[in-house]
Amino acid sequence: MAKRPKLEAIKEKFGDKIEILSVSLDRNAAIVEKFRKERSPMPWKHVLKEQKMRDPFIKALVPGGLPYGYLVDGKGEIVAFGSELDAELLEATVNRILK
To answer: Superkingdom of the source (predicted)?
Structure first.
């Protein structure tokens, strides 16, 4: 997850104004737990969905492969996704949405 350091910085900057949710499709929950404990606590909500990438729902959800991100506003609507969430654009995108 190359964007992880940028996400951590964004979460620190915006605090309670934003919520980050990551979803893992790993087959083994213990691997995810170990990663979060040893390499990155990822200070946000995290969901483990033991799933295969061949699943049609997952293919529709992540059209460009993983990782894939969505920015959802307080009303639950997707307001940004894809390239708008690239590391170099992420902060500007969040600022635009929060205005």
So the answer is: Bacteria
Domain count for the chain: 1
Contacts of residue 68, defined as CB under 8 A and 6 or more positions apart, other chains included, come to 61, 62, 81, 82
Q: How far apart are CA 95 and CA 61, in angstroms?
A: 25
Whether the CB-CB separation of 59 and 65 falls below 8 Å is answered with no
**Which residues span the domain enclosing 64?**
4-98
Counting as low any pLDDT under 70, the low residues of the chain are 1-2, 50-53, 63-67
Cα dihedral sign, 23-65-83-73: negative
Residue 73 is which amino acid? D
Structure tokens at 84: 């708008």
Residues 50-69: tens digit of each pLDDT: 666 677 777 777 766 666 77
3-state secondary structure of 21: strand
